[in-house]
């Protein structure tokens, strides 16, 4: 892991996967086929890409029951406890409708309504991600969404990992579909014979999923186009180099394109972390992936002081930020841009990924400058409410008409003036 002095410039070398035109054309073809041929197209692509021949796209209650039998009671209890923590956190984000009245009889307000239906994409195939189920579904249920459709690619035998099914059942997923890729996104956006269209699609996926979500945006809403994972650790000389290295590698093992960055004013810590990264890499099951990530996107920046370190962090606007200094709370108020902030030596990033409660669906590629983690707000919509009384119309009608005329909209002005004439 290379060490770079702050004076040489600081930036995350980001891997922003935009997709090629060839990939986009593949996605457009899949979307059109599913839009035209429905379930048959979804099954055909599932056979082509996942090797699974499916008679029915839906997971049955028997399959869910079998999934519970495949997990130990301890693991089921851990999933339930994690779900409880995440639910408690997200229920505090709920918004209420509000209204205000004036002496002239005007009533103004905001009506908060949950979305009717949401599609949740959960990556699958060779891997299982029950945490993705919990993090994407729980804020939707906390918001009051009644219909939640989960799509996830099956293995070649047409099975979905037991942990994913158990997590989905625990948090109230109403429909589970054995399909992934662009074809699943298309099914959620357009609907098929067996899958009714949804209002919003959330959840991570590969480049084809990302491109498909981008193409259907506008027909449905989406959460974000997520890039590779990233972590920045801001640490002083008192930080444990083994902890820092382990946390950097926890992100590096995600993807060859993930970025792991240490920002520190301590040259000694920088060198010790560099040594620890090399030592721990050799012991990782996913060493090949993590090594490539560290080689291409890993860096240790040595800054002049902690003030410069905070400034660097705000410039980087990382997805995950760990602050490992003697008094991390003293720096919290100075951090303006970060998706999630982990304070102190025992708040390792996996604590947030799996168990603590805050959402792990976070803005990447520097978008923490203007966006936020997935939350209850992503699953509600707000309607403005306006009720004018006769007195309010008498008092404000001429001003409204004048503004309409200023914009050259005579019919707007006339709509108000007619009422004013009747009120004379």
Give me some keywords for this one.
alpha/beta, zinc ion binding, 424 residues, globular, five-stranded parallel β-sheet, Rossmann fold, metal-binding, histidine biosynthesis, oxidoreductase, six-stranded parallel β-sheet, single chain
Tell me about this structure.
A 6-stranded parallel β-sheet has the order 1-11-10-9-12-13, with helices on both faces. Strands 6-5-4-7-8 form a 5-stranded parallel β-sheet, with helices on both faces. A 3-stranded antiparallel β-sheet has the order 2-3-14, with no helix packed on it. The chain has 16 helices and 14 strands. The chain folds into 3 domains: 21-222, Nitrogenase molybdenum iron protein domain (Rossmann fold); 227-370, Rossmann fold; 388-422, no CATH class. It is of the alpha/beta class. The radius of gyration is 26 Å and the shape is globular. The mean pLDDT is 95. Its cofactor is Zn(2+).
Mean pLDDT: 95
Computed over alpha carbons, the radius of gyration is 26 Å
Q: CATH top level of the largest domain?
A: Alpha Beta
Number of strands: 14
Distance between the termini: 80 Å
Shape: globular
Give the number of domains: 3
Cofactor: Zn(2+)
GO molecular function, one term: histidinol dehydrogenase activity
Function: Catalyzes the sequential NAD-dependent oxidations of L-histidinol to L-histidinaldehyde and then to L-histidine.
Catalytic activity: L-histidinol + 2 NAD(+) + H2O = L-histidine + 2 NADH + 3 H(+)
């Amino acid at each position: 892991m290379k060490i770079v002095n702050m004076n040489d410039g600081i930036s995350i070398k980001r891997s922003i996967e935009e997709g090629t035109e060839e990939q986009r054309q593949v996605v457009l073809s899949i979307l059109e086929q599913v839009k035209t041929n429905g379930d048959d197209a979804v099954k055909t692509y599932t056979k082509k890409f996942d090797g699974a021949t499916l008679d029915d796209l839906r997971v049955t209650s028997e399959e869910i029951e079998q999934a519970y039998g495949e997990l130990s009671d301890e693991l089921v209890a851990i999933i339930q406890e994690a779900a409880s923590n995440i639910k408690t956190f997200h229920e505090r984000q709920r918004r209420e409708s509000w209204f205000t009245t004036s002496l002239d009889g005007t009533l103004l307000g905001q009506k908060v309504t949950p979305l009717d239906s949401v599609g949740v994409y959960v990556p699958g195939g060779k891997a299982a991600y029950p945490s993705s189920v919990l993090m994407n579904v729980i804020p939707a249920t906390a918001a009051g969404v009644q219909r939640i459709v989960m799509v996830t690619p099956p293995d070649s035998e047409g099975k979905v990992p037991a942990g994913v099914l158990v997590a989905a059942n625990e948090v109230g997923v109403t429909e589970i579909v054995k399909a992934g890729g662009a074809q699943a996104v298309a099914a959620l956006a357009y609907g098929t014979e067996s899958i009714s269209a949804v209002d919003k699609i959330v959840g991570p996926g590969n480049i084809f999923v990302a491109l498909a979500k981008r193409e259907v945006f506008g027909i449905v809403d989406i959460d974000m186009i997520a890039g590779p994972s990233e972590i920045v650790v801001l640490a002083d000389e008192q930080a444990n180099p083994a902890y820092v290295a382990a946390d950097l590698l926890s992100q590096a093992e995600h993807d060859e394109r993930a970025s792991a960055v240490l920002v520190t004013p301590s040259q000694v810590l920088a060198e010790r972390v560099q040594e620890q990264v090399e030592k721990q890499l050799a012991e990782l099951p996913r060493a090949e992936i993590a090594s490539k990530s560290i080689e291409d996107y890993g860096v240790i920046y040595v800054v002049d002081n902690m003030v410069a370190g905070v400034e660097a962090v705000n410039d980087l606007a990382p997805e995950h930020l760990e602050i490992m200094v003697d008094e991390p709370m003293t720096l919290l108020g100075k951090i303006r841009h970060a998706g999630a902030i982990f304070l102190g030596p025992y708040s390792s990033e996996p604590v947030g990924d799996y168990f603590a409660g805050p959402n792990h669906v976070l803005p990447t590629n520097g978008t923490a400058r203007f966006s936020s983690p997935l939350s209850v707000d992503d699953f509600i919509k707000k309607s403005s409410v306006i009720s004018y009384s006769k007195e309010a119309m008498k008092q404000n009608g001429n001003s409204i008409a004048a503004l309409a005329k200023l914009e050259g909209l005579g019919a707007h002005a006339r709509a108000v003036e007619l009422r004013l004439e009747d009120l004379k």
